[in-house]
Design brief:
The complex is a heterodimer of chains A (541) and B (346). Chain A has 541 residues and is of the alpha/beta class. Chain A is globular, with a radius of gyration of 28 Å. The mean pLDDT of chain A is 92. The N terminus of chain B is likely disordered. In chain B, a hairpin with a 2-residue loop joins strand 8 and strand 9. Chain B has 346 residues and is an alpha/beta fold. Chain B contains twelve helices and nine strands. The chains are: A alpha/beta (541), B alpha/beta (346). At the A-B interface, strand 1, helix 16, helix 17 and helix 18 of A face helix 2, strand 2 and helix 10 of B. Strand 1 of chain A pairs parallel with strand 2 of chain B, so a sheet runs across the interface.
Amino acid sequence: MEKPFAITLDVGSSLANKTGSWRVERPVYIDRLPPCNDACPAGENVQGWLYYAEAGEYEQAWRQLVQDNPFPAVMGRVCYRPCETVCNRAQLDEAVGINAVERFLGDQAIEHGWSFEAAPPSSGGRVLVVGAGPAGLSTAYHLRRLGHAVVIYETGATPGGMMRFGIPKYRLPRDVLDAEVERICALGVELHLNRKVTDLPATMRDDGFDAVFLAVGAQLAKRAYLPAGDSAHILDAVSLLHSMEGASPPRLGRRVVVYGGGDTAMDAARTARRLGATDAVVVYRRTRERMPAHDVEVEEATDEGVLMKWLSTITEVDEGQILLEQMVLDDKGFPQPTGRFEKLDADCVVLALGEESDLSLLTGMDDVEIADGVVQVGPDLMTGHPGLFAGGDVVPAERTATNAIGNGKRAARTIDGWLRGETPREPARHELAGFEHLNTWYYADAPKTERPRLELVRRTSTFDEVVGGLDETNALFEARRCLSCGNCFECDNCFGVCPDNAVVKLGPGKRYEFDYDYCKGCGICMVECPCGAIVMEPERA
Amino acid sequence: MSKAKTDGAITTTQPVKFYQVGSFAVGNRLVDPSLRTVQADAARTNAITSGHRACQGCGEALGARYVLDAAMRATGGKLVAVNATGCLEVFTTPYPETSWQLPWLHSLFGNAASVATGVAAALEVQGRNDVRVIAQAGDGGTVDIGFGCLSGMFERNDDVLFVCYDNEAYMNTGVQRSGATPPAARTATTEAVGREPGNPFDQGKNLPRLAMAHGIRYVATATVADLHDLEAKVERAMDFRGARYLHLLVPCPLGWSSAPADTIRIARLAKESGLFPVFEAVDGEVTAASGIRRLVPVEEYLRLQGRFRHLFDSSGAVAKTDIVARLQKLADANIERFGLLQPEVT
């Protein structure tokens, strides 16, 4: 071709110039572990299910959620939400209302009748689960999905364990609990009610089980000796809450004293208020800071008019009156008596001093170690007896439904491995997505949607549910407050901010990839990624 | 910001329309594609394609692609770009390669406005009013060398959008001071020595205000840190006929001695400190300003840049408090003049 004067080369595109050779560091896409996922005792992929919820894909969100926890509607009501405590958004404005969205998804599932995907036919082992509480039901659910036959023996006449007998109706309506338990049973879990196991070795042998998961919980109230007159009215919180499931509620009188500082004490006091007590006083020997009850329970109880008496022990109970001794905390934070006493009017005293497990069914199993009233297990939740696993409130752990459900999932995985003769590998955990990894500029400011609360008057006189649910608009808004910490949510920032067009957009759901032919390694994409899903790694020489 | 405010599509006051990242990110899987930026579109023009020789983290390469891709969408791809001499010209067209994926013309350092005028006139003679013209230059080619031609283009109200990619010095020739270099900045010709190190105060030209003084239809400023705002302004500029001026702040890692990764962060801080006011003016009057969302003191902006390092001690604390205070005053004056701290500036 004839070229103009002084021109010797053909015109070409700069694409011939592979600027990737300039690079000394390369950007790499990663997934970090969001703090919510890290904190969830049930091992939920919170960020994962919120991702679907944000798009309004509620069924998919629910299906992602129940991969780990078959009780979203229960969790959305009773979980103490460690996820929200650590939520990075709290450092921006307020934590995402994860629990409220979880409840919304759980309620949607019940409303629309979503069921679990059918479990594979039972082809593996045959596993006995003792106890149909949160731990037992969770294990049964996961074992069924792994292809094992599961039989549950439950002492009581109804399943649910402490979710039914420990958590009052105003926090967890029973139709919700029933719906989620039934959904698990529909997977083909064989549930035998009114079936008390008294001799575990015999049961294992006679009924032909390959493995056992012990989840009998802790239902025996701890007692304390209190000098009491003949007509003093003393009962324990576990029986009180249990009897609320019966036909006739117990009579407590107008002035009720609850002794203890845990969540059960709060539940007992709030129940007393609903049964007509004008005064419900929680007596606790230490201070609010040292009280084991969760903040949300204490706040709701206080809102409902429950009074707190700190640094006090009950030394004597008489008809209509109790004697309290004032305490003082010593250097180590233990309460010490002061010798100063006061009287308090009380028609009845409810002891909420903790619960113990009935482990008599383990009699004769010398290889099962019991210490401090709980069964000792390894990280795989197996006891010293091969094939006998334990979880929930019978093992040393925080006694919450969420933790029990998490135990159930872990046990199912290790039981599955044990039955197959394999050591289940712990899934690798990504590096934590701390707040410092986020570029929060890109997130719009949006305060948390408060869940509507029942008016106090209604709350203290009925057993209606206290905390209301979100409607669809609110739930969507709340879900969209998620920062998606550490996990790409396809905001196109990297694609847009690259001065060298070296980011390739792969399409919805497929994220992006770098074109290392042209990426100069400037790192703008890393700095401008809102959620910290890009790192720079040194190039090898 | 201005886009979100004018079309009301992505604001936090409407709960259902809250989309996780609001209106700040490039794209958003949850909103209608029409509300995402041009840059979020996998089919964007990429007016400057890969393989160009701009430095790592070049703000100008980014800014030029943002502007031209948005203009290409606004004009349906009927666009001619005229380029002054400068980095943008040099790094995109080393003989015999070109990075441009649109009709592109380069003549001299100072005459881009005049060449663009000629292109627009020629198109008009041919009856091709559908083809639009953009002239582009760095701050040297705009405020200094090209200013006579530009002023004439404004005066004649030629149908050209002139875009200044302002990196505040002559970067291509070795970081010499220009009329757009900010006070106290070190350049090769304003060294950080003496009682008032760096570029002197009370000099230089404010080109957006000079453009407004010409009474042209549309004048706007923007940064590479707010893409929604920038694209909305390019689109708006294309709605007008006649002379228009867009002044875009594009940080330069080389000349500003900043980390390449911080290019957008620095542009954002320029706006959030008030040092670089982002606004629009129609027919010579300011009609809208982008409010400050997270106000920062000027030293947060200055600290990231080596050209201001002489204002800090080795620990990063402010050493020249008097100079930083004078710069803060400039920022405060902008905040006052444009009402940048009012919650709703429209």
